[in-house]
Structure prediction request, 353 residues.
Amino acid sequence: MKAIEWTGSVLRLLDQRLLPHDQVWIDCDRAEAVAKAIVDMVVRGAPAIAAAAAYGVTLEARSQTAASPAAFRQQVEAVMQQLEQTRPTAVNLKWALHRMKAVLQAFPADATAAAMAHALEQEANQIASEDVATNRAIGEVGAALFANPVNILTHCNTGSLATVGYGTALGVIRRLHELRRLRMVWVDETRPYLQGARLTAFELSAEQIPYRLITDNTAAYLMQQGAVDAVIVGADRIARNGDTANKIGTYGLAVLCQHHHIPFYVAAPLSTFDWSLASGQDIPIETRNAAEVTHLFGRALAPTGAEALHVAFDVTPHSLITAIITEAGVIEQPALASMQAFRRRVGEAEGKG
Ligand SMILES: CSC[C@@H](O)[C@@H](O)C(=O)COP(=O)(O)O
Prediction:
């Protein structure tokens, strides 16, 4: 399953707002269209929006090849800034744009616009292909944590639709299934946007991975019944001390896991680490339109004029996280010291400095 495709001239995005029932592709031929697609959640999930933004820069660069080198740089950098504003919490977006900016800055002042545009396209392709390899590595590392078949509970969508392919938390689940070490997956529906019900259930159905969809408020009951062996979720930003921002409802699951003595894992690539932030308190949390809470598919659930709050992410304190699973290994009991030791081991170059 794929939700992002670069044709060499346009970025094709599978409109995730319409899944699972309609599979409609949107062709973006300008950076503005990509920015709008990210804001409107046509494309979503931290690694997927990072790759989409990189292709947004590529589209702008390709449209400016007749410009002078200085005008080209100015225009492309303006678009990078615009893309960076589209969604605030997922740091992968910034990480990808920093990579694109570094490519631009490596060229001498008199480099031709065409040469710079070509290099930017290559970098976007590199970001996209690395993501799939990274997720496969995360899957391998994560699956090694489980010796026997398990029941996993997951939240939101962290699969092929949220990445360029394979997925992070869902990558671990996918790998467990391949290794016959997965009993089944409990899929939180993930109110209000229903990424679990619409997207994760869609991916698991397509691959015939056994799952059952539950309402978000069923997790506690299942844990009490002994029906959950572990929770695995993705992440949008991980601070220096291991505090992790992810889809709203993640923190509640971590608290429940602590109460029930169930391991709580975060699976994320190094591009989700924000070493510049001391703790989760510094992570910007996106709030979205309250109509996404009061309405479902355009139909009002609440009385007319009902006030609602739509906080899209929450922060799980590192003390509640059993381990963070990355492509470079596992960080057990993440905290400042273990995170710093991990960072030294993998090298600063791979994370966000
Ligand atoms: C591999 S995706 C990790 C996270 O981005 C995912 O868990 C999540 O919270 C997605 O939120 P979304 O608002 O759908 O972009």
Observations:
- The domain at 141-350 is CATH 3.40.50.10470 (Rossmann fold).
- Residues 44-47, 90, 156, 158, 162-163, 168, 195, 234-236, 246-247, 312 surround MRU (CB under 6 Å).
- DSSP finds eleven helices and 16 strands in the chain.
- Residues 69 and 190 are 46 Å apart (CA to CA).
